[in-house]
Design brief:
By secondary structure, the protein is mainly α. It has helices at 4-27, 32-50, 52-55, 61-70, 78-86, 88-94, 97-121, 130-140, 143-163, 167-175, 177-182, 186-202, 206-225, 229-237.
Length: 238
């Protein structure tokens, strides 16, 4: 019988392999990597404008910025992923099981988002408009994958919220800082600590996560119906 932790480690490894294949495909297709970057920047700006109230909120602002910068941004994680892939087994041994499961959610989200971003970028011109984006969304389709993408974001948020009710885990994360850095897991360690502290300061994430879930479901419904162009124009003209 296979060790559950080993299974999770293999799943993380497989997701990172999938991300690497997406990058290789983009690198071999003229202009595709640049369109993916433009698409990611557009989507991050959509989040920034669509959640301006949460970003400015005294209670929810930190968590909204954490999502914006860590889960919705166009940052290049190529080097981090390459290092990460080499030390998946030490990661599974080093971190507590519940943290490893959260990392697995992150890996699945990373792989799914990269695949969908590639498919979207293949459908838009180098300089695209909100109308181009809506049309690309409808052509790509995959409503189940879009719903899963949001659910993985929420799963990461729910896990971070649970961690805040386990003060021993925060102490453990602090003690793991040096071993994590020595193992090449410094960026992951920083992500977990930042997420923990951000969600701890919020004092309960249920309302915040419910707002994210509802707004993203509304966005997806409008996009799949092909009628979100006006909403995009309103956001980007604000």
């Amino acid at each position: 019988m296979q060790d559950p932790q080993a299974s999770i480690g293999q799943a993380i490894h497989d997701d990172l392999d999938a991300v690497a294949r997406e990058r290789a495909h983009r690198a071999g297709t003229p202009g595709l990597a640049e369109r993916v970057l433009a698409l990611k920047t557009f989507q991050q700006d959509r989040f920034r404008r669509g959640y301006h109230d949460l970003l400015a909120h005294p209670r929810f602002g930190g968590a909204a910025r954490f999502f914006l910068e860590e889960l919705y941004g166009p940052r290049d994680f190529t080097r981090r992923d390459a290092q990460f892939q080499r030390i998946v087994r030490p990661l599974v041994r080093l971190f507590p099981a519940e943290v490893v499961q959260t990392v697995a959610h992150l890996g699945a989200l990373h792989a799914l988002s990269e695949r969908l971003d590639t498919r979207m970028a293949e459908q838009v011109p180098a300089r695209f408009s909100p109308a181009d984006y809506v049309q690309a969304w409808c052509r790509v389709g995959e409503p189940a994958a879009r719903a899963q993408q949001v659910e993985l974001v929420l799963a990461v948020g729910r896990a971070l919220d649970i961690y805040t009710r386990k003060p021993l885990l925060r102490g453990m994360l602090h003690m793991m800082r040096r071993p994590a850095q020595m193992a090449g897991l410094g960026e992951l360690q920083a992500f977990l600590e930042c997420g923990f502290d951000t969600f701890k300061a919020m004092g309960g994430a249920q309302t915040f996560l419910e707002l994210i879930a509802q707004r993203e479901a509304d966005w997806a419904a409008q996009l799949f119906a092909g009628d979100a162009e006006g909403r995009f124009k309103a956001l980007f003209s604000a």
